[in-house]
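User: If only I could read backbone structure tokens as easily as an amino acid sequence. Underneath my words sits a plain record pairing an amino acid chain with its backbone structure tokens. This is the protein in question:
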Amino acid sequence: MAMKYTVHFLSLFLLLNGCKSAQQIHDPGYAQVSQAVHQAAYSPTQETVNPVAADLEGPHSVEEYIQYALSQNPDIQAARKRVEANAYQVPVASSLQDPNLGMTFYPEQVQTAAGPQEFALNISQKFPARGKLNAQGELAESQTNETRAQLAAVELATVAKVKRAYYELYFIQQTINVTEADKQLLVEIRDVANVRYKTGKVSQQDLLRAELEISNVENELIRLEQKLVSGQAKLARLLHISPQTKLLALEHIEPGSLPADLDWLQRQAIASRPELHAQLATLEKDRQALNLARLAYKPDVTLGATWIDVGSTGVSPVANGNDSFLITAGINLPVYRKKLDSAVRSAEAKAVSTARTYDSLKDETLEEVADLFAQAKSQQDLLTLFSEDILPKARQTLEVSSQAYNTGEVDFLQLVDNWRELLRFEVSYLRLEASLGQSLAELERVIGGIDTQALQPIPAAPEALDNLPLPVEP
């Protein structure tokens, strides 16, 4: 009887200890999530907006924003936790199942020759066929490798998004600067036209046309300011900070670089693109799943033991109260071959499907690299054309027309058209400069990072428009 109570106490202790361990929180991140969910239930409006990051306000380099995004971006943090979650599943998959502990109570005692059976305790453990646990562990490890590659892809995608948003912000800022400088130039032209109008050398039409152009420029500046706010909010989202944070690009960025060898880029993309590595990890996972499906033909073994508490007050004259001890063994019978065969064929088909998906992604990668390379090369050539030919000629045209306006050889409309043309070329150059940075960022994402030794420099930006000769006041 004492033995029975001891067994009851140990079983209850193990059950309560297991329940207590299940309530413990091991991940600090989950503790924060749990607290946030609890607060949201009672204070839905509390902390609904991310705080303004004062240390990130003002001009910063793109590298600073990238480092901040790599540590704070929610997509990256989620991908890291997926890797962690899958990594913890490896020991789960490669471990034995919990043993089963059972107790049997007899409301009516079963009489035996040794005495009445009062209580039975049994324990059993399932042992998978040889190789199954190892295959399950390798399957979980393959899934972890897949999420590791996906993490690298998310990081590269986030870096590319930050660069694209940064270069767009740079374009808007520089366009505002150029537009304001050209507005000032137009104001000075307007003042000259006003003086010439007062002296009777030109009609009031020149003055009114100048005023209209100034209004158009102010309208464009309002639109650009709105785009600047939108661009700052877009970059702030990638950094996981308040959209009201006044993020700014540097006034002058280093000239970009263009890859020199398309063949090298394509080889680099095939070897390094994380999405391709993720597909290879998926293929390995499918192969491990196929191996596990083939192992299902082998039976698993279940071993157990049973202890029976026998009382000493039996009706049998030979009752001695000796307890009984039994050993059990069993296997599952994999006799439903259609089910097993279908599982194997399904795993084979899935592996082939993944392999074909890899081939498709590889072809898509080669296409993207070739397209981005051609796009960046075209942008580089256009930048060279603008800096060496178009912009100098546009400035010279405005200079000549300014001088000709003084002598009456060119009317005011032609002068304003030349000014507008120069502004358009200045903005187009800035657009090309930002687009080239965005193309290179996308190319870097596709090939899994760019080796700086394989790059060639981009032509530096031409000097800014300043000190252009104006019409001379009479």
Observations:
- The chain has two domains: 1-47, 57-95+128-298+334-457.
- The chain is about 65% helix and 10% strand.
- Confidence is low (pLDDT under 50) at residues 452-474.
